[in-house]
Amino acid sequence: MKKKMRVLATVFALSMALTTLSACGSKDDAKSSNADDPNAKDTITALLPPVSANFQSNFDQMAKDFNAKYPNLTLKIEPASWEDMTQKLDTQVNAGSPPDIAFIGSDGISKYVDSGMVMDISDTVTDEMIKDYDPAPLEYMKNGKGLYGFPAYMEAHAIGGNKEFMEKAGIDYKKVQKEGWTFDEFREAIKKGVVSENGKTSRYGFVFATAGVTSKDYLGILVKSAGMPAAFNKDLKYAYTSKNFLEVLKDIRVMIEDGSMPKELSSIDAGKRWNMFLTGQTMITGKGLAGFERSAKLNNEKLQNKDASAVKGSIPVDYVVLPVPAFAGAQAQASVAVDGYVTFRGTKEPTAAHKANVVKAANFLSSGANAATTNNELFVAQITESSRKAAESMTVDRDADNKAAVEAMLKTAVPARPDIPTDLGAKAIKLEDEVIVPKLQALIAGEITPEKMYDAVKSAAVQAFGDDGVVKD
Q: Per the confidence metrics, is the pTM higher than 0.70?
């Protein structure tokens, strides 16, 4: 009897297993039959950091608005902090199941192209979508011939000045905002901003963060205004072996020797740099972003209201956006950050319908009212026609001269270089990490000369790219 019961149990188990397999097969078949149905229900996932102060608090409304526009689609947003954004995304990418959309810097696209996890949407975007975006920032979302998402903004890397201090130093900052300045003009201006008493400096003319995550920023921003908008010229020869690179290194060192910048510059990180600016310890700061005007205004309000959360020892500051000076007789070009909504795929090929739905979601997030609201909060320029139109009805407490200065810089923005092969790009990053950054720190600290650093970079470049693969001028 027991044996019979065991046999029946086995038969029942097999029957259930077959039923389950059959059911799974039916579900997959049903999914396949609707795979290319544009009206089928679908969910798009997005991993998004706090792009602006109120960005994440708007997620529920964004999802509702998206569903109202596309009733068959659901936008599921996962919030992430800036600190854990990269780790979360990399973990999901390595597992083969990334989100459909992630907000990252356009310079990170090549990294994920190599993994095969980003999704080229060039065959899916509509002409109507493409026409909405300004051409320059859209180019930054490309790699080779592929398009991997939509830009959220194009932010100019500027420098920022204290209006009161510059006026006292006799600096015509409005002229600089409109016409720019040479390094020699900049050097003389920051000398005038220095305040010293009994051999001790209480205010520097210029401070730039060079420690921690900012270690690459200083030189990377300056060289773009010295005739080297990218690490490779258009012939794909490594550019930082140019004589202009040496001139920039000399200029970096001379500002410290003049006393216009602190000797301890190599220990100043982003937080300390901003603290020094708000407490009146520097006339001009870098790198300056458009949103710093808003940060300064908020701190001013706290000071006025005697709010204890104001930066300790800070003073009221009118923040002035200034362009980076031009070096070595070259034309100034604005270094820019283009971040956006990058499209991803899993290990399996996405259906045509799902791919189109991901494109709709990325476009929805990066244009119209969503983009207008976020970019206004960041004090950055609108880069789509639809967001410019939406922004017309929005009030922004932004200085008109600062706004015009940023717009002028964006006209000189360094163009995207999707033509640089990923293998060359990887070698350049390796050279930057292993040679340029540590040598720059030594240069700033006065441990090596500009010539020594230049020779070290040139030697490493020839080794990496060959004698014929570097600029010789």
A: yes
C-alpha closest to that of 452 among 434, 435, 473, 429: 435
DSSP alpha helix (H) spans, 157-211: 163-168, 173-179, 183-192
C-alpha 337, offset from chain centre: 4
E strand or H helix at 2: helix 2-33
Q: Is residue 166 part of a domain?
A: yes
Q: What is the pLDDT of residue 34?
A: 56
Does a cis peptide bond (omega within 30 degrees of 0) precede residue 287?
Answer: yes
- Alpha-carbon torsion angle 51, 57, 59, 60, nearest 10: 180
Q: How many residues does the chain have?
A: 473
CB 382 within 8 A of CB 394: no
Coil vs helix vs strand at 244 = helix
In the predicted structure, residue 14 carries a pLDDT above the cut 50: no
Strand-pair category, 158-162 with 195-197:
unpaired
Yes or no: say if 122 and 147 are a contact pair by the CB < 8 Å rule.
Answer: yes
Q: Cα separation of 134 and 145, whole Å?
A: 18
* Same domain, yes or no: 142 and 50: yes
Q: Which domain holds residue 358?
A: 42-155+337-410
CA distance 104 to 51: 10
Q: What is the pLDDT of residue 31?
A: 36
Instruction: Please check whether residue 354 is in contact with residue 42, taking contact to mean a CB–CB distance below 8 angstroms.
Output: yes
Tell whether 92 is covered by a domain. yes
User: Residue 347 has which token pair?
Assistant: 């290990």
Same domain flag for 178 and 139: no
Under 8 Å CB-to-CB from 363, ≥6 apart: which residues? 125, 129, 150
Give the Cα separation of 114 and 121 in Å (integer). Answer: 16
84-88, 196-200, 447-451, range with greatest mean pLDDT: 447-451
Same domain, 456 and 323: yes
Assess whether pLDDT exceeds 60 at residue 22: no
Average pLDDT of the chain to the nearest whole number: 91
Between CA 241 and CA 12 the distance in angstroms is: 76
Element (H, E) at 42: strand 42-48
User: Are 265 and 374 part of one and the same domain?
Assistant: no
Residue that finishes a domain, picked among 360, 389, 410: 410
In whole angstroms, give the CA distance from residue 384 to residue 367.
6
Closest Cα to residue 214, out of 162, 275, 266, 260? 266
Q: How confident is the model at residue 35 (pLDDT cuts 50, 70, 90)?
A: low
pLDDT band at 289 (very low <50, low <70, confident <90, very high): confident
CATH of the domain at 364: 3.40.190.10
